[in-house]
């Protein structure tokens, strides 16, 4: 599909909506404004708590039980894209994936670590059996912690952003608005608005199929790293 867009006058975008969740849009602007300074590490802890027992996922998405690749292909792929949106292109990775619930076929827990320039690391720590504190655990699906030279930024399960300056103990909440009337802070609407705005103004959408292909390549390397038990170098993306 990516190759076809190069030889035909067609625009193809991918409905990857996690990067359009309002907290990630806000975090991106805070990074650009230098809130945390040089970033040392970013970690997202996926803890939806929906994967325990023989009836895991049956009430909502029963096909989850039969997917041979699960945690990364179904869920982690979104955070590959979020990390790239926030931090740029990684150049190596390590992954360790495994299954905890014998009722399902694929992996439901594990980690992957992406390394970027300046030794910056982004860590995805996923466990679908464990949960996290939130009024709605499907809002953010977990918590993100970003550490930098100036301070640390926390995204909690209620979509709140808390900043703690380096050397201090108290955190302050960063105010921003979002609509909690649909999935992920109404990120589906925000993605569609972005694409339609680009079509109207003649600008390029963020989520072209050629860009999304990079997420799929990284996903394949994650599975390879886990099966081989070693860190792998990634292709240099342009």
Write a brief caption for the model:
The protein is α+β, with helices and mostly antiparallel strands and 238 residues long. It contains 5 helices and 9 strands; from the N terminus they run H-H-E-H-E-E-E-E-E-E-E-H-H-E.
Note down, in words, how this protein is organized.
With 238 residues, the chain is of the alpha+beta class. It has a domain at 36-176 and 207-227: Dihydrodipicolinate Reductase, domain 2. The chain is 31% helix and 21% strand. It has helices at residues 2-7, 22-32, 71-87, 183-201, 209-228, and strands at residues 39-46, 92-98, 109-115, 121-127, 142-148, 151-155, 161-165, 172-174, 232-233. The protein has a nine-stranded mixed β-sheet with strand order 8-7-6-5-1-4-3-2-9. The protein is globular. The protein starts with a helix and ends in a 5-residue tail after the last strand. The mean pLDDT is 97.
